[in-house]
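Hi team,

Filling in the usual template for the complex we talked about on Friday. All components are listed, including any nucleic acid strands or ligand strings, so the model treats them as one assembly.

SUBMITTER: L.P.
PURPOSE: interface mapping
COMPONENTS: three
RESIDUES: 1062
SEQUENCES:
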Amino acid sequence: MQKLILVSLQDISEWVGGTLLSSGSEVKMVRAIAPLNRATKDEVAFLAQTKYREQLVSTNAAVVLLSQKDLDWWHHAYPTQALHVDAIVVDNPYAAYAKVATQFVVRQQAPLPLQKIHPSAVVDERARLADDVVVGANAVIEANAVIGAGTRIGPGCVVGEGVVIGESGLLHANVTIYHGCQLGARVILHSGVVIGSDGYGFAPEHGAWLKIPQVGVVIVGDDVEVGANTCIDRGALDATVIGNGVKIDNLSQIAHNVQVGDHTLISANAAIAGSTSIGKHCMIGGGTCIVGHIKIVDGVSVSGATVVTRALTKPGVYTGILPFMEHAQWERNAPVFRHLRELREKIRRLEKNK
Amino acid sequence: MQKLILVSLQDISEWVGGTLLSSGSEVKMVRAIAPLNRATKDEVAFLAQTKYREQLVSTNAAVVLLSQKDLDWWHHAYPTQALHVDAIVVDNPYAAYAKVATQFVVRQQAPLPLQKIHPSAVVDERARLADDVVVGANAVIEANAVIGAGTRIGPGCVVGEGVVIGESGLLHANVTIYHGCQLGARVILHSGVVIGSDGYGFAPEHGAWLKIPQVGVVIVGDDVEVGANTCIDRGALDATVIGNGVKIDNLSQIAHNVQVGDHTLISANAAIAGSTSIGKHCMIGGGTCIVGHIKIVDGVSVSGATVVTRALTKPGVYTGILPFMEHAQWERNAPVFRHLRELREKIRRLEKNK
Amino acid sequence: MQKLILVSLQDISEWVGGTLLSSGSEVKMVRAIAPLNRATKDEVAFLAQTKYREQLVSTNAAVVLLSQKDLDWWHHAYPTQALHVDAIVVDNPYAAYAKVATQFVVRQQAPLPLQKIHPSAVVDERARLADDVVVGANAVIEANAVIGAGTRIGPGCVVGEGVVIGESGLLHANVTIYHGCQLGARVILHSGVVIGSDGYGFAPEHGAWLKIPQVGVVIVGDDVEVGANTCIDRGALDATVIGNGVKIDNLSQIAHNVQVGDHTLISANAAIAGSTSIGKHCMIGGGTCIVGHIKIVDGVSVSGATVVTRALTKPGVYTGILPFMEHAQWERNAPVFRHLRELREKIRRLEKNK
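RESULT (copied from the run log):
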């Protein structure tokens, strides 16, 4: 299915801004990227973790992306032996891998379809689509939506009234964006993503719950990626705001009026409750729950499955994971959790009476 | 995009059943609702939490919705100073806010489309739709579905065979309802909601799992709202039942044969396992897990991220959150969790030997 | 809506490979299956748990599926009294129930539609569909997809380029499968399932995150069922692999490069992080989080809501659930969690000084 792409080591080296060590191999052609231990003689490999350094000995790769530090390690570990694989020295081998893989993918992409708007798509005549927007089969674009150049809307997507999507975006199949929401440039939304659903707001009256209309929107910055089936609710009165470069994994919940700072990562199955503000360059682990109406400063990491119940005012790593154990052991320990305070008091009394 | 709606303070006062204090201002016109500290001179504000009372001093709002208690506080705090903003005194300012916002939204709504059934929608000829049902582009309504007056089915929705939906409902885009499920009146389902998927039932035989057909349905009461990408499974033999006025947030899981009592709230990312019964007027926090086959009585609140492992027979608030800490501190404490029982025994011995 | 199906006890007995005890009743006709305590005189009941044995006394069922052990119990408990209900003795009453219910469902199913490919479906001319494939309204099948005999694709599904689906599969409405993914035979995917979305992979560079293209696929074995709104990400370079007979519940996350062994169960709202390998015949409870890059051996059970932070090298049951308590009690205990290590040290000192 994938087109075969052949590129020279010289090309690869230029893509990553690296230094190709070996003379004479510049014109060697490669066709894909693969892990160091599985790359074949016409594939590019990369060394991104020191624990895989020994794989340099036996790799069959055509060329390896590595750091100067890795190379120095080699010369130290094998002082009498030249590296038998061609090498491109880069500052950041993992980023270099991302760049090479991206270049392959870009070159393998199908050409734009001849019919950019699939005949089965329903595009309101009041929507404004840049010339080279692609709209898939059975997608729906409602009135006054504005879609930027090069953006591709997958089959079955629904883009609501007045939605604004920047250039070079990619909505995979079956994404839903509610009316009035705004996405920046180069935003990627995976299938099942819902942007702009109503926030969870109800006022109690006479034992029942009155719906509080959610009249805000969602504003998503540039270079954001949102994983499959993740939901970002619209603000109650204002906006829910996702900063530039934020990456959110699958099945996460971003409630109304949440603010997520630039370049923050949020892993799968996380739940961020309403009106909470998360800083820039944070890392929120999978399965994390964060309560509403708190502020988390820049540079915070929250371990997966941790429950954050109050503001985090200092950068750092925060954790609250109950260690698992064999079930029988857990059964012995479980009753004690309810009596920790008493244990502490008993210890205090013992210390006093000592 | 939103239509500008102008209404008088007199109208507002009638919407909320309140008392407009200021004489002469009845004809003052307003156009939106906003928080007290951001409302402009033609916006309605509301005071729903005492901690915001001081904002009364500097608000620019045209009028504020507040309680008699708030007003009394003002007179006590500022005995020599009249409230400089017009005021409508109500029993429940938060509910009043909901009502005013709803009135604005209703007036701003687009008129019904001329073509109520979009030409691209696929409506089986055996489906019965009340006269003013709206069906969006590329939606699918299968045989023998019955849809009540005023209900709007969004683009891309799939309404299965024999589904019954009451009047004045709203299915946002890309909702799926499996065959035979029943929704009451005024039900709101957000995008990605799945109602009536098979419950998770398998019988072990010879090391593999036999599927147990799920032949029950889902029955959803009146005035229920279900958040984006939430799933409610059909019963195995009987029905999964969601009571009147229940509000479920995004990405929650309601397993087969669960019963949820009237006016109960279930926040995002909650998981309720099979055959569990939750009472009326309960509040289930986000990220909560509730095991199957238990009964939770009316009036229970479960804090977010709590795991409920047995029946709750008394109303009250229940919590099981492991406090988070700095990671280094957690690493010191973590090993002790597996030895709590031993600690308790050591303390007992120490007490005895004292 | 459901067709009435009448079958004889003799038929039922053959379906389950059981022994029909009562003479003369072979031709008795039944029409459905129901729990022992609610079955009517023309319904089949089953006794799958010993705690329901006493229901044999009063059941109105036409016939009961039970084990020899249950029958022996009856003769012991009621030595002077014959079982008043006809009985079919089977090895595994729960599996027998599954088989009978399946037979009823198969016979009640609607006949295949006359138009197997709904006219509104968009099927690329380069897709290859076996003769009796059914494609629902507004579904989209992209180029080079291959779909096996008897597979039904629900309304609104999107099957990407080059996807391979085996025979007798069932995709409920609004399922999305990304390009290149492969499903075995008899796979059931519930609505909102996303197969093959990009794994969550980003390389840090200059304070931002570079996307790592996810060029692997998802390979799903035979007889797999995946619950509503569950996501299975494609591999980064290789494949994410779901073994034969695996059953995954709703709203779960299977990250890139995960391997799930044959016949493993994964309950709702579970999150399995990238590159983790789960063995065969495991049971992963609801709401569980499992970290990435670990190996879990065959035959492991993980209790619901448990966080698995390291490899599990021995079969067994593992648990890490913080017991919930009344909120006031929790508030007393909560501060102690952060000081467990100190408590242990104090106890050690006390023991030493004793």
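MY TAKE: The mean pLDDT of chain C is 95. The first strand of chain C starts at residue 7 and ends at 8.

Thanks, L.
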